[in-house]
Amino acid sequence: MSTYAQKKGVGAVLWDYLTTVDHKKIAILYLIAGGFFFLVGGLEAMFIRIQLAVPGNDFVSAGVYNEILTMHGTTMIFLAAMPLIFAFMNAVMPLQIGARDVAFPFLNSLGFWLFFFGGVFLNLSWFLGGAPDAGWTSYASLSLASEGHGIDFYVLGLQISGAGTLIGGINFLVTIINMRAPGMTYMRMPLFTWTTFVTSALILFAFPPLTVALFLMLFDRLFGGNFFNPDMGGNTIIWEHLFWIFGHPEVYILVLPAFGIFSEIFAIFSRKRLFGYSSMVFATVLIGFLGFMVWAHHMFTTGLGPIANAIFSVATMAIAVPTGIKIFNWLFTMWGGSIKFTTPMLYAIAFIPTFTMGGVTGVMLASAAQDYQYHDSYFVVAHFHYVIVGGVVFALLGGLHLYWPKMFGTMLNEALGKVTFWLFLIGFHLTFFIQHFLGLMGMPRRIFTFNEGQGFETANLVSTVGAFFMAVATIVLLINVVMTIAKNKKVGGDPWGDGRTLEWAIPSPPPFYNFKQLPLVRGLDPYWIEKMEGNKEMTPAEPIGDIHMPNNSFVPFVISVGLFIAAFGAMYHNEHSWGIPVLIIGMLVVFGSMFFRSVKDDHGYHIHKEELMDDDKGGKA
Amino acid sequence: MKRLAKGRLLFMLAVTTLFLAGCGEPFISALQPAGEVAQTQYDLMLLSTFIMVGVIIVVTVIFLIVLFKFRRKDDKIPKQVEGSHKLEIIWTVIPILLLLVLAVPTVAATFDLADVSPMEDKNEEGKTDVTVVNVKANLYWWEFEYPNQGIVTSQELVVPTDEKVYFNLLSTDVKHSFWIPAAGGKLDTNTENTNKFWLEFDSKKADEVGNIFYGKCAELCGPSHALMDFKVKAISKDDFDAWAEDLASMEEAAQPETASAEQGQEIFNQSCIGCHAVTPTGANAVGPNLTTFGDRTHIAGYLEHTEENLKAWIKDPEEFKPGNKMTGQYGDLSDEEIDALTDYLMGLKVED
Question: Where is the Cytochrome oxidase subunit II transmembrane region profile domain (chain B) (predicted)?
Answer without folding.
Answer: 22-117
